[in-house]
Amino acid sequence: MSLKIDREVILAPMAGYTHSAFRLLCRELGADRTYSELMNATGIARRGEEKELSFFTDSERPIHLQVYGQNPEEIAQGAYVLASKYRPEAIDINFGCSVKKVLKAKAAGYLLQYPEEMGRIVEETVKALKPLGIPVTVKIRLGFYEDTLEEIAENLLKAGVSAIALHPRLAVQGFSGSADWSRVKALKEIAGSVPVIGSGDVRSWRQIDEKFEQTGCNGVMVGRAAVSNPWIFKEYKERRDIEVSLAERVDFILRELELMWGYFPKEKACKAIKAQISQLFKGVRGKAKLNDAIMRSKSCEELVSNLLRIKEEFSG
Ligand SMILES: Cc1cc2nc3c(=O)[nH]c(=O)nc-3n(C[C@H](O)[C@H](O)[C@H](O)COP(=O)(O)O)c2cc1C
């Protein structure tokens, strides 16, 4: 099934960050496409989905709901449950995550060691979603211990994948070293008409253009840089650096929180957003005071009133 992706700037999936509210705000700022964070397909197939993770609104479309798992049958089943219920633009299979818990479960990035099994997983999922007309995409790394991109790509393409996002590091690297975008270019040459998306170490809007030019890829993902600067999408669209004040950053967080309360219990939302707050205020005057106030907040009310107080203080 073909999927059209043409020079898109995409919010990368990030567990703990890219839930509905953040995706929506990034789309408003100019992200062309979003991905959910990874969801356990085996759990979904056996017990149903975690509603907070699968929740999204139409404004976040085009959206890929991302699953991971261990074997073709359960991944295909989990994917079917989500696809039939929510009709996302695509189901994405994660073959990149290499955190200990996931590797121990022999899922996601672990499977990079078994390109043929990756192919079987995609094939089974493509078959399951065909009646729904929903394509299957993947997000991969270069390999596990060594770069086996060509073999991986061959198996995925044969299995009918509709787009490949590549974070060009090995699984064993975690986030060390740097993303090797020459491998995104190599994948683009192999993939033919199947869209290729690159992901890794894009820190400024200018680098987005560089990646498109260097590799000919169809999409560039922005991950960590978007957590601390979601305005990067707007900067890219408007082709200029944007100075964002502390007050505007506080307003962003308050809006995100309000949206989160639609699908997260209030206190849980406030707890969840704290990790993002400290990143969003990186390098901003007043950051130390803000972080201190955030850490001291014992309840949601306190968090909100502290945010508002600091905003007043630094707007004057
Ligand atoms: C906190 C965090 C959580 C992540 N969670 C996911 C995930 O759920 N699914 C996925 O495919 N990649 C995940 N990634 C990888 C990112 O999508 C991206 O490929 C990687 O961070 C490199 O891009 P960046 O340098 O722009 O952040 C995660 C990365 C981070 C930092």
Automatic annotation (TrEMBL):
GO MF term list: flavin adenine dinucleotide binding; tRNA binding; tRNA dihydrouridine synthase activity
UniProt entry keywords in alphabetical sequence: Flavoprotein, FMN, NADP, Nucleotide-binding, Oxidoreductase, RNA-binding, tRNA processing, tRNA-binding
Binding residues for FMN: 13-15, 66, 139, 167, 223-224
EC annotation from Swiss-Prot or TrEMBL: 1.3.1.-
One Pfam entry name: Dus
Annotated catalysed reactions: a 5,6-dihydrouridine in tRNA + NAD(+) = a uridine in tRNA + NADH + H(+); a 5,6-dihydrouridine in tRNA + NADP(+) = a uridine in tRNA + NADPH + H(+)
Residues at the active site: 97 (proton donor)
Listed InterPro entries: Aldolase_TIM, DUS-like_FMN-bd, DUS_fam, tRNA-dHydroUridine_Synthase_C, tRNA_hU_synthase_CS
Matching PROSITE patterns: UPF0034
Domain DUS-like FMN-binding: 10-311
Uppermost EC category: oxidoreductase
Gene3D superfamilies to which the protein is assigned, alphabetical: Aldolase class I, Putative flavin oxidoreducatase, domain 2
Entry keyword annotation includes Flavoprotein: yes
Family affiliation: Belongs to the dus family.
PANTHER family, per the entry: TRNA-DIHYDROURIDINE(47) SYNTHASE [NAD(P)(+)]-LIKE
Purpose of the protein: Catalyzes the synthesis of 5,6-dihydrouridine (D), a modified base found in the D-loop of most tRNAs, via the reduction of the C5-C6 double bond in target uridines.
Protein name (Swiss-Prot/TrEMBL): tRNA-dihydrouridine synthase
Organism: Thermovibrio ammonificans (strain DSM 15698 / JCM 12110 / HB-1)
Upper lineage: Bacteria, Pseudomonadati, Aquificota, Aquificia, Desulfurobacteriales
